[in-house]
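Researcher: Next sequence.
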Amino acid sequence: MVAEFPKSYVTGVTRALDSAIVSTSSPFSYAEQVQDFGGERWSFTIEAKARGREFEVFANSILNKKLPFTFRDWQEGVGSGALIVSGANQSGNSLNVAGAWGDISLRAGDFFSVEIGGYHRLHQLTEDAVPTSGGAAVLRFVPRLRASPSNGTFVEIKAPAVTLRASSKVSAPVGFVVTIFDISAVEAL
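Model: Next structure:
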């Protein structure tokens, strides 16, 4: 089981989508060449505020051991409903979904996640999702799917999650003071 990062600790989040793209330019003509190797992953800086010892337990048992942890992005205003993956063997930057949309409104920039192989994969919509009268829709997003989710897999929209690993050591002060921590983490692949 993957530990969940305590929501009560979070005071701020910065995230970026890293892409394995290399750009080189000629020192003679300044002609530029761009190569896309296809790799993409999320990197996060999580600002946390907690009592030293309270947070130290989480830092020492999970973060500093480079164990994966789940981090949720609690979204406001996306509505409520239940979407599932519609069809197996999907790949790339689109996903067919179906379900009870209720008052769900998914717009470009919103996030969703699917769980594949025990890890949560976070995706950001690149265009609005418009369901048909039967409840089917195509989600278009970044980053591309790493693996194909199974037909019927739940699509998380209210609290989309990503499985991360700390990318640097997290130190906690000695004592019971309330302290602010910056945790650098990357998507666990």
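Model: The first helix runs from residue 52 to 61. Residues 1-21+32-72+164-189 form one domain.
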